[in-house]
């Protein structure tokens, strides 16, 4: 089920270590006829938890590390208070009588023994008492810092309820207030102070077998702008979903924030701001720091570590992806992840609206990372279906930026990544006029500007189409181009609607409409898992299209 069928969906379908999931489909695309064992350089057929007294991986035995020994419990875990203070192994009241004796826990815990199910029930009850979403977020982060396995049990078993807590929209507010709610570091901070010694900093991280890195420089956090060092909440949240939805071990995940300063005056004047209090570095200084970082990551963790760029500003996001995609295993979720989940939803929506992709005309509000990334993947899929050159299929797709419709007469003044979308047409300044001129069947918002799909825009879409597709993708909820209620009401119930952040069901004229959510969580955990278990060293467009085509079902 996808997000455009107006029905509730089960996000647990992305728990993909199982046979036949997206990870396995992607594995087949990446590996062709090569066997998994060959991709692992002929490693032994050895499984975690079956030899040497190893501790069984509770989060899913992903194939990429089956041949790696896990340190036996008695060697890796201290006893007594130290054990209770280690979130990786602390089980709280779930320690059995035998474990309490063996690990010197007698007297350090109340006598009652609660299994994980009872602990989960108690914690969910407590979480539901909080009326403020940020308080729920803080409670979940506190749990992650003291009992990791219980944190993931809660998240996996209650993913639809807790996904908006640990990620969008609540994580946006958490990042804005990160300095005030900061308790203990959950990732690695690399600032300009560490220039010249980034490799040493990476070696300070206690886990050595890293498979996935999510990194941000905090310049464009969701639709909230430059939050500098406080953007760490984004990598932490993304990687918790890699574990909960993809089955990647928490110990294999590394959140990183690169702090090059901030241009946010409010943060620079905030006594509780946790980052460098200086204007953001740019140009050669920025490029040299990123170059050193990318080289150090590859040197320390190898060629197969997945580096996911997250919430970089447009100019840096495109430059980094273009520069390093040929030398590193890199993935930009804002460009490629968003594009994949939206294309998957569009493919699924064809069951409702009929026709094929080539039969539709697409109009975007927003020509940044998300907008151009989605547009390019749509063009690639149409090209694949029709065998037409991608230069030709791009003509079905139009983009509007802050200066109006992107047309050929503006070519000289456009940024490089916008130029492929400059088509022949007279200049059009407003979105409403663009809708009237282009007559799109699909309207997609990725502008980061709230309330831009006005009543007139939605009514015009409804007058042009029997079932207009309206996608308000900007996050968080406050930045959404329109709400679900507005889309259904203004279109008189005709719209097929999806958003980036969740909206409650809407009742209109006696019918209940359940809005879809175009959440990247449908793609990136399974996509990342596929890259990991296959031993891939580069991301190709064919992999993204394979992920879209599988996810639509």
TrEMBL record:
Keyword Ribosomal protein applies: no
SUPFAM superfamilies the UniProt entry points to: Aminoacid dehydrogenase-like, N-terminal domain (SSF53223), NAD(P)-binding Rossmann-fold domains (SSF51735)
GO biological process, one term: malate metabolic process
PROSITE patterns: MALIC_ENZYMES
Residues where a divalent metal cation binds: 310-311, 334
Residues noted as binding (S)-malate in the record, renumbered to the chain: 220, 475, 519
Annotated Malic enzyme N-terminal domain residues: 144-325
Cofactors that this protein relies on: Mn(2+); Mg(2+)
Malic enzyme NAD-binding domain mapped to chain residues: 335-553
Keywords of this entry: Metal-binding, Oxidoreductase
UniProt GO molecular function: malate dehydrogenase (decarboxylating) (NADP+) activity; metal ion binding; NAD binding
Active site: 167, 238
Record's cofactor remark: Divalent metal cations. Prefers magnesium or manganese.
Classification via InterPro entries: Aminoacid_DH-like_N_sf, Malic_enzyme_CS, Malic_N_dom, Malic_N_dom_sf, Malic_NAD-bd, Malic_OxRdtase, NAD(P)-bd_dom_sf
Record-level GO cellular component terms: chloroplast
Family recorded in the similarity comment: Belongs to the malic enzymes family.
The name this protein goes by in its record: Malic enzyme
